[in-house]
Design brief:
Strand content: under 5%
Distance between the termini: 31 Å
Shape: globular
Order of helices and strands: HHHHHHHHH
Number of helices: 9
Number of strands: 0
Radius of gyration: 19 Å
């Protein structure tokens, strides 16, 4: 279909990729626990929008440029690491607020994070991750028929499949986790959750910063 092959295997591969812990999964999980279904779906939509950019980059050669150029890879890598660190600092700030300020507000109310802002954060965490771009460049060609009349069309088709399946997976995860958002822990535990989230995103930022170009 559209110059592709082995779509069942491709779907299984995408499922494994989506279920593997990483920045996108962590951000969607944290957003859901902090802001409920609306925030979680906004995060998932932002991640999906980032994957659209990576699909277009792979289809039109931008990802190939990043794979070939150490400078281009480093620029995107450090921008992504800096953004993740900025998110970690924001969570750290929330976690270190005085107990009096945090009383009755273990987790921020959904209104403090408008869905548009969560969408933007999800988009940036995905699109500024060069590993995602290189992953698309490495994965999609394996499912493109060598005799395909249009390799670009095949790239776009497989990329669209990846985006839709990935969004559905994250949306189902959001709906499964949403009931936990109604549980309101005490201020101390709420601050602990913020600090744990800050540590997680700082770790992800460090991992990204230490990534070497293949």
């Amino acid at each position: 279909m559209f110059g592709s092959h082995d779509l069942a295997l491709f779907a299984l591969t995408v499922l494994v990729v989506n279920a593997t812990p990483g920045v996108d999964l962590a951000f969607t999980l944290v957003s859901t626990l902090k802001g409920g279904v609306r925030a979680g779906l906004a995060a998932a939509a932002g991640v999906a929008a980032g994957c659209v950019v990576h699909t277009l980059a792979a289809a039109f050669g931008l990802a190939a440029l990043m794979a070939a150029s150490g400078t281009a890879f480093s620029v995107v890598k450090w921008a992504g690491a800096a953004y993740l660190l900025w998110l970690a600092v924001g969570m750290l700030r929330d976690g270190l607020r005085p107990a009096a300020a945090a009383a009755g507000e273990a987790l921020p109310a959904p209104a403090t994070q408008p869905p548009s802002r969560v969408f933007r954060q999800g988009f940036l965490t995905n699109v500024l991750n060069p590993k995602v771009a290189l992953f698309f460049l490495a994965l999609l060609p394996q499912f493109i028929d060598a005799a395909a009349l249009s390799k670009t069309l095949a790239f776009l088709f497989l990329g669209a499949w990846f985006v839709v399946q990935g969004f559905v997976f994250l949306a189902l995860l959001v709906l499964a986790l949403a009931p936990l958002q109604r549980w309101r822990p005490g201020p101390a535990l709420g601050r602990g959750l913020h600090l744990a989230g800050a540590g997680l995103f700082a770790l992800l930022a460090a991992r990204l910063a230490l990534t070497e170009k293949p």
